[in-house]
Amino acid sequence: MSAKPELWPEAYARHVLAEVDSTNSEAARLAPRLTQPTWIMARKQTAARGRRGRAWISPEGNFAATLVMRPTGDPAASALRSFVAALALADALRDLCGPGVTIGLKWPNDVLLNGGKVAGILLESAGQGGQVSHLAIGIGVNLVGAPPVEAVDPGATKPVSVLGETGLRLTQDEMLDHLAAAFARWEAQLVTYGFGPIRTAWLARAARLGQTITARTTTETITGTFDSLADDGALVLQTGAGRRAIPAADIFF
Predict the structure, then answer these.
(1) Which tens digits make up the pLDDT trace of 111-130?
(2) Domain 5-204 falls in which CATH fold?
(3) Going by DSSP bridges, is the β-strand pair 38-42/63-69 parallel, antiparallel, or unpaired?
(4) Which residue in 132, 145, 185, 249 could disulfide with 215, CB within 3.0 to 4.6 Å?
(5) Any idea where the domains of the chain sit in the sequence?
(6) In a 10 Å sphere around its CB, with 0-12 CB exposed, 13-18 middle and 19+ buried, how is residue 152 labelled?
(7) Which pTM does this prediction carry?
(8) Spatial separation of the C-alpha atoms in residues 135 and 81, rounded to whole Å
(9) Of 245, 234, 31, 222, residue with least CA distance to 133
(10) What is residue 62's three-state secondary structure?
């Protein structure tokens, strides 16, 4: 089920490594020398990380890759690529797994398969003066194995794998082919039409939209109805005190 070679987006390069500490770290090292957006995939990571410096547990055979690019605009505009990446992951998983699975997007940067967390996205950037010199979009997908439940935060979404949920043993290369093609399509939408169509498409796939969820920031816990996304990608909750736009938080169902 791998993508046909001609579906690889021409404007993007690819590097495949047998082993690396972290594909995001490798992206930062390579960024000054790159002349085009480049996918970096590793067969194995030895020091993978997730959001807020958490360790990313990934058994051998799972997918780990980073897209490094030089986007135009300020850091806030660059951060919208997390929604582009989530939509691309949803498309790639749908293409590879078929229509018999349920795929949802969990704000701000997780992808759900049959209700469990199958993939995560980590954005890291560098720059100064309000400009981004490079953006690294790290993506991990549980293709063959998921971390044990006790390895995640209490109350967090249960981790699952593609193999465990579908019986399909997808390869890292299949995932990269489909993901790169889907990302290029959604990135073109963002560049051409702005965030509006991306926001609409993301909300159409959003998990728990219209339901009660809890957002935990570094300073408070907020419970309310998941109402929408703001124009800058912030989570909008309807709470007892009115509508709240939350730019960063961990979400619990």
Answers:
(1) 999 999 999 999 998 877 67
(2) BirA Bifunctional Protein; domain 2 (3.30.930)
(3) antiparallel
(4) 249
(5) 5-204, 212-252
(6) middle
(7) 0.92
(8) 9
(9) 31
(10) coil
